[in-house]
Specification:
The complex is a heterotrimer. By secondary structure, chain B is of the alpha+beta class. Helices cover 29% and strands 22% of the residues of chain B. In chain B, strand 1 (2-9) and strand 2 form a beta hairpin. Chain B is elongated, with a radius of gyration of 27 Å. Classes of the chains: A mainly alpha, B alpha+beta, C mainly alpha. Chains in contact: A-B, A-C, B-C.
Chain lengths: 278, 101, 307
């Protein structure tokens, strides 16, 4: 039982660690000094979640959290590609922050009913912090979206880019079938993707951000403009094709060149001194 | 943007105390930023944020001359309580032993 | 009152150890001097974040990744507090930041130098923060009260940073040969810059900040306090010093360095903002600042486009 759970949990931890790593790169560089302080806390929260998840997995595997975090080879990490993309500018960062934290809330909501007590308890704790992250993200998005046109346009463009990648968050997790059978998670990634779509579409509509109903590669249908300008349903890429679509592949360890660079820097000190105490 | 002065209360014994300020575009953003700037070490649980423009400052000169002796405002004005208790006890003795007033 | 009378009264207040508040009358010299001093302090905090954030991505454990991030977060927080105090003296935060990224204003010397590995984190966290704490503790008695009030919080947090830095150092010192070598190599690179941090001997007759009691102690006294506190601890850990090498004077009971052994050349370059990392760090910071004007504009406006 347990190795499969550890594998699943490690993938979730990888998302949080890699995203937390990216968030922490803004420290000292954020565009507003009070926001620098606030965003740094969010970065620490994500790394903290990763630490708790690696600890859970580590207990099962008889491994150290730091070894799981920094001691694996690059293709052993199972984070979604969205998490490893470079920060870009503040618009991209905010867009990714909102998309990821919405997806995370959808996922955590489904894990609160986990049959594994430890995972359920940890999920409840993490969800409390993630809800605060979501409030933060939504506050910023509203302000930028409703403000001067330059920022609004940058944000819309960034959201489009991030949403294209978001399919990678909902590729099936490693050992997901076992997880569903055992009740460690209570909904499939596909089901979560549908909930995520509903939530994000509704919120963007409410706030007045004109992205339009977006879909996730792997969904049955996509809305495309016909030659007459009407929106018609067209069969989208199949679930298999999702793996090669933008943003996919992370759950099977297929990462972008950006991840190679990230992994190299993030694990450097740890790898250069095996077994050292810090 | 506005300067929001931040006041913090910790526990129940002390009132809100000024702890700093944040610059923010509106109260919602100011609240989130103030929480991170002034509560992240658990120094307290409650904040008040007040826009700088809503704060009115008043000062009093320490050496202001006053007309009447207002020492009745201070405990030091009642230091002769020991002598006064003595006097009252003596008078009570007189009354209770029936001697002349 | 005439200007001369006001000035005489102000001098008398300073002499008597009185504290000055924002709304008090003060001569322009004092206002400008304090503003520049606090502005430089604020700049140093935000620029100080820059070398350390370069070490953060390679932090070797999850705990250190979080704790170092928190430490740098504190430094940014200190800048936030100090800019606020400086603003009340009459210079806007945006103006100060623009002067900083455009190379028009100064910040402390140490932040002009490169970082290479985790050994730098130990040096910065223990010795450089230790040096900063010595100078900042002395400033708690400054004549400008709003400055001393934020310094109270800053010093308390720097104490915590010091413990964090020492914790990291002790792990290196009791670690592998490679880890000990890491610390020694970083110490070899940083020692001169740490000595420079305190500045040359003070000149009380010509130092307006000492005259106005904005600063309350002489540079050489602060440096001596630092040497006496930290040199023995470094020696007991078995590390050595490059020039200027401290030596123990039994009679004086102090750890001393020869003024002749101090090469002031590198500090001269830094004063012109020509340190090894100055252009790159300022350039990057400026680039991000300039390219995010749209964020400042979005924050400056009230929300106007309702859904």
């Amino acid at each position: 039982m347990s190795r499969a759970l550890a594998t699943l949990v490690t993938a979730l931890a990888d998302d949080e660690l890699v995203l937390g790593h990216r968030h922490s790169e803004w420290t000292g560089y954020a565009p507003h000094i009070e926001e620098d302080v606030a965003f740094s806390s969010i970065a620490q929260d994500e790394v903290g979640h990763a630490a708790a998840l690696y600890a859970l997995a580590g207990k099962i595997l008889g491994d150290e959290p730091d070894h799981l975090a920094f001691g694996r080879q690059a293709d052993e990490y199972r984070n979604a590609l969205l998490c490893e993309r470079p920060n870009g500018d503040w618009a991209y960062t905010l867009a990714r922050h909102w998309v990821y934290d919405t997806a995370d809330d959808v996922r955590l909501e489904s894990m609160e009913g986990s049959s594994n007590e430890e995972l359920a308890a940890l999920t409840t704790k993490m969800r409390r912090e993630e809800r605060y992250h979501l409030i933060h993200a939504e506050m910023w998005l509203k302000r930028i979206a409703r403000g001067p046109i330059e920022g609004r346009n940058k944000l819309i463009h960034a959201l489009e880019e991030v949403l294209l990648d978001s399919s990678g968050l909902f590729e099936p997790l490693p050992e997901e079938d076992t997880a569903l059978t055992e009740g460690w998670v209570t909904a499939s990634s596909q089901e979560l993707a549908a909930r995520f779509l509903a939530r994000t579409n509704a919120w963007l509509d409410e706030v007045g951000i004109p992205i339009g109903p977006h879909s996730i590669a792997g969904e049955r249908a996509e809305f495309v403009a016909s030659s007459s300008g009407d929106l018609i349903e067209e069969a989208g890429p199949s679930l298999d094709e999702a793996h090669t679509s933008k943003g996919g592949g992370g759950r099977s360890g297929r990462h972008s060149p950006d991840f190679t660079e990230l992994w190299d820097v993030m694990t450097k000190t740890y790898r250069e001194h095996p077994g050292a105490r810090w | 943007m506005d300067v929001y002065e931040v006041f913090r209360r910790t526990g129940h014994k002390e009132p809100y105390e000024h702890c700093g300020a944040v610059i923010a575009p509106d109260p919602d953003m100011a609240s989130i930023m103030a929480k991170e700037c002034f509560l992240r070490r658990g120094e307290g649980e409650h904040l008040w944020l007040v826009s700088r423009g809503d704060i009115h400052a008043v000062s009093k000169n320490a050496d202001e001359n006053v007309v009447a002796d207002k020492s009745y405002r201070y405990a030091s004005a009642y230091r002769d309580v020991v002598g006064k208790r003595e006097r009252a006890r003596k008078r009570a003795d007189e009354v209770m032993s029936g001697s002349a007033s | 009152m005439t200007y001369e009378e006001k000035l005489a009264a102000f001098n008398a207040r300073i002499e008597a150890g009185d504290k000055i508040e924002t709304e008090d009358w003060m001569p322009d010299d004092y206002r400008m001097g304090v503003l520049k001093f606090i502005e430089m302090h604020a700049n140093s905090e935000i620029m100080g974040a820059l070398p350390e954030r370069e070490c953060l991505p390679s932090a070797p454990t999850l705990q250190r990744k979080m704790s170092l991030c928190a430490k740098i977060q504190d430094e940014v927080g200190h800048a936030q507090l100090l800019y606020r105090v400086a603003e009340d003296l009459g210079k806007g935060r945006d103006a100060m930041f623009e002067d900083l990224v455009n190379g028009k204003s100064k910040f402390h010397n140490v932040f002009h130098y490169p970082v290479k590995h985790w050994g730098d984190v130990a040096i910065i966290g223990w010795l450089i923060d230790g040096a900063a704490l010595v100078t900042q503790a002395a400033l708690l008695d400054s004549s400008y009260a709003p400055y001393t009030r934020v310094l109270k919080r800053i010093c308390a947090e720097e104490q915590l940073h010091l413990r964090h830095g020492e914790d990291i150092t002790l792990e290196l010192a009791s670690g592998t040969d490679a880890q000990r070598e890491m610390f020694q190599e970083a110490l070899n690179r940083w020692w001169l810059a740490i000595i420079h941090f305190f500045g040359p001997r003070s000149n009380p007759d010509r130092d307006l900040l000492l005259k106005w009691k904005v600063k309350t102690r002489l540079n050489e006294d602060l440096r001596q306090e630092f040497l006496d506190r930290y040199v023995p601890r470094i020696v007991e850990l078995g590390f050595t010093f490059p020039a200027p090498t401290p030596f123990h004077d039994e009679k004086a009971g102090h750890w001393l360095i020869n003024d002749d052994d101090i090469d002031w050349g590198p500090l001269e370059s830094i004063k012109k903002n020509e340190g090894p990392e100055t252009a790159r760090r300022l350039g990057n910071r400026k680039e991000t600042y300039d390219s995010h004007r749209w964020v400042r504009e979005a924050l400056a406006e009230p929300a106007i486009h309702a859904a």
